[in-house]
Amino acid sequence: AQTVTQSQPEMSVQEAETVTLSCTYDTSENNYYLFWYKQPPSRQMILVIRQEAYKQQNATENRFSVNFQKAAKSFSLKISDSQLGDTAMYFCAFVDSNYQLIWGAGTKLIIKP
Amino acid sequence: DAGVTQSPTHLIKTRGQQVTLRCSPKSGHDTVSWYQQALGQGPQFIFQYYEEEERQRGNFPDRFSGHQFPNYSSELNVNALLLGDSALYLCASRRTVNTGELFFGEGSRLTVL
Fold first, then answer.
1. Does A98 sit within 8 Å of B107, measured CB to CB?
2. pLDDT in tens, B40-84
3. Distance, in angstroms, between B42 CA and closest chain A CA?
4. HEC assignment per residue over chain A
5. Does the beta-carbon distance from B88 to A91 stay under 8 Å?
């Protein structure tokens, strides 16, 4: 079975610090997408960043970047210069060949002023 | 350009009742999927609709059913409600040809008493 594991239930950092959220996954597929989604208290899932498995280069989106290690099946998210608005639940997700999103349990990130 | 819209945003039902949730996809999107997110957990895939047919289904009982209309909007129906059906129900849409662009609505919060 395909699974996504987020081992950090909660993290807390000071504003402007850098924080890394971890994610590991298990699949036998070779081509797939990986995502990080943010869910603030408003509930709406917002795409933070995505990575295509066939691309070796790590994806970046402004202050957000990933460390994608395909052989290790690891997909961590780094947030640089963290801001108060980054406070949210963060979910790692994987899309399989049936286009179903498989989700991790989430990491609650708190940015302290 | 409206994103994914869901209705109602909140509703309360009692055990044994039936509920219908509605979703309008983002303009230009033709595929709709539904997810159940219990409190404090990651979303679980329910099913996905394309061309008015259910294409993939997660591990949910037959009490969960759906429909997609010619305008691509979708409904999720849950019969014989159980307390455990209390959750946030998320709708997501995408263009079939684009696996990596999944947009979410704000969800419908269902409480079963």
1. no
2. 889 999 999 999 999 999 999 999 999 999 999 999 999 999 999
3. 5
4. CCEEECCCCEEEEECCCCEEECCEEECCCCCCEEEEEEECCCCCCEEEEEEECCCCCCCEECCEEEEEECCCCEEEEEECCCCHHHCEEEEEEEECCCCCEEECCCEEEEEEC
5. no
